[in-house]
Amino acid sequence: MSKKIALVTGAARGIGLATAKLFIAQGWNVAMIDRDGDELQSASADLSDAKPFIFDVSIPEQVDQMIADVLGAFGQIDAVVNNAGVADFLPVEETSFATWRRIMETNLDGVFLVSQAAIPALKETKGAIVNIGSISGLRASTLRVAYGTSKAAVIHMTKQQAAELGEYGIRANCVCPGPVKTKLAMAVHSPEIISAYLDAMPLGRYGTENEIAEVIHFLCSDKASFVTGQIVAADGGFETTGVGLPALRRK
Ligand SMILES: NC(=O)c1ccc[n+]([C@@H]2O[C@H](COP(=O)([O-])OP(=O)(O)OC[C@H]3O[C@@H](n4cnc5c(N)ncnc54)[C@H](O)[C@@H]3O)[C@@H](O)[C@H]2O)c1
């Protein structure tokens, strides 16, 4: 049987790169997408079952070309992982419209554009979409008016996609990671934020890129063939514990 093809955006580093490597280890071929050409070339250099495609997911013309190039190289797409993302932590009053748009362009527009452009190919394979949300889209917080709102919208878009694309056999699910020490997170997590996260999470630690990749891979695989429209937090229990009042703890 020929190998399945996964298209992973934001694959040059972090969760996207771990996801690309896990899919390859599970016998897939991977179209690695990123707008950071240098980092993508070096990340993909040693991965024989992957090909790099340098594109920006927030630009409609680039997305159309990207899907055409991936189909030209691999002939089919079995899974789309919308992982490319950017973050900025600012108070509402200090979030300029330019910042708002910068976050929305990648985190929300990019997911819409890539998913839409891939639909004809996904119809052929009865494929799967996995969108990467965040605990910031599940729970509100200070400083995340743009980032949190973009991720909440991605969560709802996933449900829209599941509702509409199910008739073609296309599944759509969303993985909401908790904190993982990637370049994106470390740019906005101060030491105080890190220790507050550790205090608030039942598992008491940051996740690893690979722990998120495992959930993404499961949702794209045939093992999840009856799962669609679901939002899965891979977050060490952060979301489920609410405010987790310290005064209610035993220690
Ligand atoms: N790390 C965390 O703690 C965390 C928590 C929750 C959710 N997430 C989400 O996980 C996803 C991956 O994040 P990460 O932590 O691995 O980040 P990262 O910064 O390490 O990697 C993101 C990658 O996406 C690429 N990218 C960004 N905008 C792009 C665009 N418009 N077009 C193409 N490529 C683009 C970047 O060049 C980079 O290689 C993001 O959607 C992020 O919001 C991360």
From TrEMBL:
Q: Top enzyme class of this protein?
A: oxidoreductase
Q: What GO molecular functions are on record for this protein?
A: oxidoreductase activity
Native species: Thalassospira aquimaris
Q: What is its EC number?
A: 1.-.-.-
- Quote any Pfam family the record assigns: adh_short_C2
**Name by which UniProt lists this protein:** SDR family NAD(P)-dependent oxidoreductase
Q: Does Cytoplasm count among this protein's keywords?
A: no
Question: Which keywords fit this entry according to its UniProt record?
Answer: Oxidoreductase
What InterPro entries does its record include? NAD(P)-bd_dom_sf, Sc_DH/Rdtase_CS, SDR_fam
| Family matches, as CDD domains | SDR_c
The Swiss-Prot or TrEMBL record describes its family as follows: Belongs to the short-chain dehydrogenases/reductases (SDR) family.
